[in-house]
Each structure stands twice: as C-alpha cells, then as structure tokens.
C-alpha cells in the first residue's frame, strides 16, 4: 500500500547491488511512495550486480561513482542536479567495504593500508558526499540523509573486524555533519542501525549466520527485515520526521536494549 509519503521528492540511492540489498528495496519503496530517484554505485559493484534492472523498474538513471574519488562524487552530484532540474531532498548511504575482511586478516593483525581504504569507502565517503552537496547547494531545505550502520559500532562482535571501527566513524560523521548542515539548511542526517540482514555484502562476514541466529533469539520482535528497513528509510525521508537529526536509530526488533531473552537462556541450558 502506498501513502504518497514522498510525493514530489527527489533523491539519490547509493549501494543497490541486487534484489537482496537494502538499498535496492529502498529504491523501490521510495518510487512507490512518489519519489524520483537517481541510482549510483561503484563501477566494479555495477558489473557484479544488476542495477540496470532496478533502474528500469523505478525509471531512474544510473550514474557510476567511486566514492573514494572526489571527481566521481562531484560528477554524480552535478549530473543528479541536472537530471532533477535543481536540488534534491534525500540521500541513502548504503556503502560498506572491508579489504581486511576480504583478505581474511584478523582484527589484531590488520593491514593499515587496507584499513585506510575501508574507512575511506565505508565512512569518510559520507563526509565527501555531504561536503560536495553543501558546496553545490544540492540538498534542499529540510532534506534528509540516512546512512546504514550496525550495532558493532557500540558492542564487540569479534568477526565484524575493522568494519566495527568504520561504522563508529560513520556514525560520528553523521552527527558532526548533521550539526553543520542543520544550522545551514535544516538538512537532517541520521544513521539507522539495522538488524543483521541477509544481503550479498553482509554474508561475506565470517560467522554471519551465527550473528543472525543469535540476534533473532535476542530480539523481542525478531530481526528486522530488509523490507522493514526500507520502510523506515522512507519515513525518515518524509516530512513526518522533520525534527529528527544527528541520531543513531536502532532498527533491530529490540535487540539493542535487551539484556537476555528466555530463548537464549533455554538455548544455553540445553
């Protein structure tokens, strides 16, 4: 069911890889709620995924962008504004990549060169995108930016590796830039801390099935699905949340504030 929550709004969706990805589902939900969309991803991810199929479904152009490249980001924002005929209203930052995880390096033995690349792509890319938008006055007054994160930014999940540090930095960037963009243009910037979700990217983390099973048992409502997260993103992009900014919003079925559940106790007593 559509509520026209985003009627007349325009936005950029980063990170749609395939039908499992939260960004992919969010793009569809935004389109169904009346938004116009520009899709973007890194060229290598575009070759791996099926973004053109999504573009056809939501009637959106696809503009390649390597977020670690300033010229690419500048080109993306410029072309998006040309497509929209001016500024836009929302951004979804759904970007994460760990070279050390890909290389199988333990957290205590990470390669620091790889680590810099991880932080650049997974965290500082949000800063680069927002700085570029501010310079070009690209986001309309009362616009909304959402970046996806995970509770490993606050708690230790050993196999989440350096991505925990990256998510911590991402959340800090959202808070700090949220202040400056709020003062200047009433643009709100938040992070959504999502349940572990079976996406192509997420499944690359060691022990990911264990993450999901444990979180399901520890969450009073169970794990939030990718579709649930997409719906939450739509609400955050809408005018219904105009005064919410600089927040890390847990969207995890209650996991973040649950000490233990009967399901976990029962499992441990077996």
Number of DSSP strands?
Answer: 6
Shape: globular
Number of helices: 10
Average pLDDT value? 95
How many strands, what sense, and barrel or not for the largest sheet? 6 strands, parallel
Task: Please characterize this protein's 3D structure.
There is one protein chain. With 270 residues, the protein is α/β, with parallel strands linked by helices. The protein has one domain (10-269): Rossmann fold (3-Layer(aba) Sandwich), CATH 3.40.50.720. Helices cover 46% and strands 14% of the residues. It has ten helices and six strands, in the order E-H-E-H-H-H-E-H-H-E-H-E-H-H-E-H. The protein has helices spanning 22-32, 43-48, 51-58, 70-84, 99-102, 112-136, 163-185, 208-218, 226-237, 262-269, and strands spanning 10-14, 36-40, 88-93, 139-149, 188-194, 248-251. It has a six-stranded parallel β-sheet with strand order 2-1-3-4-5-6, sandwiched between helices. Helix 6 runs parallel beside helix 7 (163-185). The longest helix has 25 residues, at 112-136. It is globular, with a radius of gyration of 18 Å. 44% of the residues are buried. The model has no long low-confidence stretch (mean pLDDT 95).
């Amino acid at each position: 069911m559509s509520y026209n929550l985003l009627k007349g709004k325009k936005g950029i969706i980063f990170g749609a890889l395939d039908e499992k990805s939260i960004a992919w589902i969010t793009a569809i939900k935004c389109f169904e709620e009346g938004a116009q969309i520009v899709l973007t991803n890194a060229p290598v991810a575009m070759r791996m995924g099926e973004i053109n199929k999504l573009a056809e479904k939501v009637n959106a152009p696809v503009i390649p962008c390597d977020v670690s490249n300033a010229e690419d980001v500048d080109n993306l924002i410029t072309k998006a504004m040309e497509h929209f005929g001016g500024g836009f209203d929302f951004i979804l930052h759904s970007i994460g990549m760990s070279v050390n995880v890909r290389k199988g390096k333990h957290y205590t033995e990470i390669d620091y060169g790889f680590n810099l690349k991880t932080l650049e792509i997974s965290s500082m890319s949000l800063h680069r995108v927002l700085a570029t938008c501010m310079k070009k006055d690209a986001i309309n007054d009362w616009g909304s930016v959402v970046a996806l994160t995970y509770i490993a930014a606050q708690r230790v999940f050993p196999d989440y590796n350096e991505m925990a540090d990256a998510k911590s930095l991402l959340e800090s960037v959202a808070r700090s830039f949220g202040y400056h963009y709020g003062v200047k243009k009433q643009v709100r910037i938040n992070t959504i801390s999502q349940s572990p979700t079976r996406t192509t990217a997420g499944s690359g983390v060691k022990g990911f099935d264990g993450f999901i099973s444990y979180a399901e048992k520890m969450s009073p409502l169970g794990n939030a699905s990718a579709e649930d997260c997409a719906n939450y993103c739509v609400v955050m992009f809408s005018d219904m949340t105009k005064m919410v900014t600089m927040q890390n919003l847990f969207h995890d079925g209650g996991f973040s504030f649950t000490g233990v559940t009967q399901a976990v106790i029962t499992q441990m007593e077996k």
